Amino acid sequence: MDGVGKVVGRREDARSIRFDIEAPKALAKYIAHKGSICVDGASLTVNGIDGNRFDLNIVPHTLQETTLEGIQVGHEVNPGGRPDRPLPRTAGARGEGV
User: Is residue 32 part of a domain?
Assistant: First the structure.
């Protein structure tokens, strides 16, 4: 799975930075709450999902050690990953169906 997404939000959230990313609909159905996703080469955990948008909380160390520090609202990113068996989310799964 891979595609081009867009950063639609970036804000401080306690001791982290929260990114809101809009994913292509074809990819969004494979993004799971608390699942892993790769964004611009960094393997991260999905914090939340809302339709084809997902958010990530990035701690300072991860920002410094990846290319994510310079990403701002409007930037395009490459969300994706290679799960062994990508299964689409279903409607009603934790209230987050696509």
Answer: yes
